[in-house]
Amino acid sequence: MTAEKPAPKSTAKPAAAPRIEQQVEMAKTVGAANLDAMAEASAVAIDSAQACIAEMADYARNSVASGFDLVERLSAVKTPQEFVAIQIEAGKDSVNRAVAQTTKINRMVGDSMIRASAPLNARANETMEVLLKPYAA
Fold this sequence. Notes:
The protein is mostly helical. It has helices spanning 17-75, 80-132. The protein has one domain (25-135). The two termini are 56 Å apart.
């Protein structure tokens, strides 16, 4: 009986290894680009939030100034009719300013959402193309 020697172990990588390495590299690249898009979207959102806060602070400042002006005007009235007329005018003005401010803030927030989501939408589309490309024939 002759003893057979076991076959030497191969040090060559299996055929699937390069494909896995390529997929890992692609995942790293896609992941890094996704993080960059998230950072860009976050920067837009932060800038927009700061703009909204500044706008609301300005509105509050103007409202306080209008309140002091109203008190001054009301303290100078001579008749009850004049007092009521000033109050009605101030009420209408207050409502109109509040509606205008709300509309302005809503537009700012809507525009912000569109601008902040743009890099994320672009990355989602690019990522899907990259990931589906190997399967398209």
